Please model this.
Amino acid sequence: MNKSSRPILPIRLSTFAICIVGTLISGIALLMDASSWLLFIAFSLLSLLGIYDRLQTKHAILRNYPILGHMRFLLEFIRPEIRQYFIEGDNDKTPFSREQRTLVYSRSKAVADEIPFGTTIDVMAPGYQWINQSLVPTHLPSHDFRIEIGGKDCTQKYSASIFNISAMSFGSLSANAILALNLGAKKGGFAHDTGEGSISHYHRVHGGDLIWEIGSGYFGCRNQDGTFNADKFKKNALDAQVKMIEIKLSQGAKPGHGGILPGPKVTAEIAAARGVKEGESCISPSSHSAFSTPLEMMHFIQRLRDLSGGKPVGFKLCIGHPWEWFGIVKAMLETNIHPDFIVVDGSEGGTGASPVEFTNHVGTPLQDGLRLVHNTLMGVNLRDKIKIGCSGKIISAFDMAVAFALGADWCNSARGFMFSIGCIQAQVCNTGFCPTGVTTQDPERQKALVVPDKSERVYHFHNETLKTLKELVEAAGLDHPNEIDASHIVRRISKNEVRLLSFLLPEMPGGLLLQGGNIDPTLNLPKVFELYWNKAQAASFAALKD
Model:
């Protein structure tokens, strides 16, 4: 919203303004008629409340909606379900339940999240999962779990936290949201993924570790025609704040779709970060132009690693056609060029705006995609050479434990950290009217998000989640989350049947795919290997014809 089109008095401040005017009018009336005292006191108190709301820094809702915003908290006090339905939507229509949001809010504020009267979910329902505990639990000295990312060709390996901020671009998020996330990451010693919108000024202010995501639009490293520019890439990649480079092949919320940021939304700051012209539509194609085959993709990875001075380079994808993923792995074998890491994004992943069919019915869910990537790398003896990250509705320590059991080395979270800086799932991300200043470019609305306060919540959410993960690891009798495997997690199949995750999603024996791809049916591995491994080719993303 430009200054010329912005109304003198935003509608969100109308209640506050009415109370101020009411105070003045009732004050004048009081001078003429003493019976107006009650009205004057009422308007005065409401006006003072509105002033307090605008000045306080804890609640973005109240800063943006003084006086009126208290209705949300009143409904929550009376019955949380009322707020859930009328303000944040029904459980069936929102990405996370009230319990999940409450968990994030309490951990962000570093307050107790214990609940009375036991579990709040149906433990007899199909799909319920738990981790088996040990009679000899361990006692770990720290919850700062870290892994080293960087393979044989990487000279600047990165010691990463196992819990990081997932990709969210400046432009999708407000400047204050980026500032708060990065400052929180700096305080907590974890990484902040830039999203494909590249590195903005706001990513650099506090100096938190960055994972630079490069999408098909090559924002921050592009020529005028949208193709890759090596010199611009090198300039950004050599920055000490950039710890890893992530090539985005696809995202879980809208895989294979691409995107466009309309010209009117391309502000001067967004244009500067992305390397495009202000006011012109910013297009992310549905595929990359720097490579068109798996072999070319491996050489592009090596090129980026060389240009960055040997920093870890990997890619993110939501699994689609399995033969395309298999072709990438075959290209690794043929070229002996390996990505340092792979981030698997589940179709559960979110976005500010996407066609509902893509959100609900395109892409592989995280469980299946993550297990496929892990098993494929096991089958070609590359699993110990490539680290695997994952994202897609990961919000709790137990979510992380399940991801580790499926094969992940670390986890990323987007909405969890969005909740920590104040997101209430108003689901108006694409309109510019975010009530808490998280996903708006309106400079007045985003002032409601107070960076020092919200950065503390980012830090606490990360810290408290890892503390809980430490307790889960100790209860299971283990020494590190990477020791959690599928034999530790149990899933209910029906009211009368449970199965270990290792039985439902078995692990491929090491090197099996190097033996010709003939899969022993008694191993109970997914048919996808038998059907498509031999049809995949390193020279093309297409499958070989029968």
